[in-house]
Amino acid sequence: MTTLGTTPAAPAPQSVADAASARPHLRYLPGLDGLRALAVMAVMVYHADPDWLPGGFLGVEVFFVLSGYLITLLLLVEYDDNGRIDLGRFWLRRAKRLLPALFVLLFLVLVVTAAFRAEALGRLRGDLIAGLTYVSNWYQIWTAQGYAAAGEFAPLRHLWSLAVEEQFYLVWPLVMIVLLRNRSSWSPALVAAWLTTIALLITIGVGLLHHAGRIGECAVTPDAYWSLGERCLPIADALYLSTITRAGGLLLGAALAFLWRPDALARGPIRRHGLMLDVIGLMGLVTLGVLAWRLHFVTPDGADDVLFRGGFWFTDIATLVVIAAIAHPTARLGRVLGLQPLRWIGTRSYGLYLFHWPIYQLIRRVAGNKLSLEQFAIAMVLTVFVTELSYRFVEQPIRTGEWRSWMRRIWHQDEPTARLVLGSATVVCLIVGGLSVYRLQAAEAGPTAIEAGLADGEHDTVSIDELLAGSAGADVAVRQQRGPTTVAATPTTSPSTPTTTTVPPPAAEREPVVAPVVTEAPDVAAPAATPATAPAAVAPTTPATTVPATTPATTPATTPATTPVTTPATTPTTAPPTTAAAPVEEAPPPEPSPTRVSQLAIGDSVMLGAAGVLAGRGWAVNAEVSRQMIDTVPLMQQLDDGGVFGDIVVIHLGTNGPISATSLDGVLAPVADVARVVLVTVFADRNWAASNNDLIRSRAGGNVVVVDWAALAPQCPGDCFEDDAIHLRPDGRRYYADLIGAAAA
């Protein structure tokens, strides 16, 4: 999908050419294959990069309407021809059309995953079973995988919409049998009206159930989830993936089939209105284009309200009028959409959909990464190649029965070479498949590399309760002595360079920051700005403290140029002359708050990954997965009320969603009196990252320093990032901690 990158939506597997060959009285409509081609291309573009076509996923809604129309039309024609519907024959045709390519897909995904992504086998097992049994949509809802979940290798996530289609194929013929056996008690218009009413009620229900606004974790935005036992199921994903809530398009397509049969149109008076249908159909195509360009699955403010509150309905209506124009015998739109290139794509849309998503996944590693233009071109070449092989040598031979002729020719004629090739290929497939299945059943559904790194980072964080209870300082001291949990504290100084420690002076002694936006990386071999030995909660006691202020962005990245700012040493007060009045005894300085933490870092999962390194350098780290800026506003006030803030506070948020000026200022207000506040920008290929970073940079000045992580992250030396290009590997964690230490010094 689905990603965020992003999740998939499948085309209706019922080809128009298949429909025509299945029933001779159903006129072939090549324009419908052309419409399918446009829809599958929109889906593939969206899956490559949602920014290219934000509403490209609406192609699936077009497929649903097409399926409802064609399947209902086939059943009506079969009943008119034979006086009955042969369920066994209908389901056999569906199986011959759907299963061969699906089996090829599942086999290839299993073998490739076992060979190149073995760590993902444990998670793949459930996806394989769900895909094979056509319940992928319900499985994804139950496991809360998320339509837009971005951080996983998910080569079979796209099977959710095939599951919706197959469930429709199982149920709808039974409904049609009941309707057609009681045909005398209803008219086609009445059935169409009832189906339209049900679809409208589904649309209204989806709109009412939709959670408007930002969606955080279950504990933060509980109204955006359904609780079932100990599970929190996102409402947005359930509304998008479930068969019930996506049945509207299928039912509207079925309603049109009752009213708009091509054979009847050719005989009726409306056949003279082809020009009018062309105009209406063209308007429908334009509407589909506008919707695909304007609608989103996720916006910076959360799930798209327009999509869930009418967007699907308008997509369905626009698709209906296009189908009506294509099916009209004298309209020209069908001939235009039925041109050979579009028809070629449309007849292969099932395979294009099946194979493009896992090929994308192999190229980009995880679902949320966007493809570059070069990667997209490579993916398209591979997709078309694999699709054509499947179409020519698997799908068509099995659907038409030609494979039987092949087998008879190979085994009963003098074809030793063909027999050798076929036998060898069969043996290889059995061996490779057997080994892959063995590895699959032995694999454990363990955490991904990202999840494992974050879980380790949690051992080096302090909770809000620990901070308020005053135990964070002791915890940091212990962590500092033992070093990070996941990444050994590697010395970053050269043998000839002595390690120095700088402790920021109190706010009253600090001079203004020279360059509030840090855009140059410090020399990673000189962590002089990283507090490595000073206890986190100890106030400075040295006579003078050197505070390096980072130079402007013109400083070369390889030279950690800093400007020392020296604060004067405390001068002892001269004793008064003996002839003066007795001196007044000065009041002792106030005791520091027992909860005060000198160096506190607050962030999301990016910081969580580096928590071990930061804790080993004296930082108290409070970081959580999926934390957003708005969630942190009350936490900051709570920490301020508890006297937690000390000399330095680092804040790194904005990876997981958009931030507003109000929420950012709400986070900064409680730390207005803190000596040094370090804001970190966002490095993530997400739609909201640029606007978040502009807002963060605008707050630089005064006591606020901005570390431009968006600009500095690409300069990280070594193997720094996980497959999602957001979370950190060991090299990246050390580099990240170096940057924070330099900015905080």
Give a structural overview:
Mean pLDDT is 81; it is low at 1-9, 19-24, 484-515 and 524-582. β10, α26 and β11 (676-680) form a beta-alpha-beta unit. The protein is α/β, with parallel strands linked by helices and 745 residues long. It has 3 domains: 16-104 and 134-400, no CATH class; 404-442; 466-565 and 591-745, SGNH hydrolase (Rossmann fold). It has 29 helices and 12 strands. The longest helix is centred in the N-terminal third of the chain and has 30 residues, at 87-116. A 6-stranded parallel beta sheet has the order 5-12-11-10-8-9. A two-stranded antiparallel ribbon has the order 1-2. It starts with 15 loop residues before the first helix and ends with a helix. Helices cover 53% and strands 7% of the residues. The chain crosses the membrane at residues 52-77, 98-118, 159-180, 192-212, 238-260, 272-293, 313-333, 417-438. One of its GO terms (biological process) is lipopolysaccharide biosynthetic process. Pfam families: Acyl_transf_3.
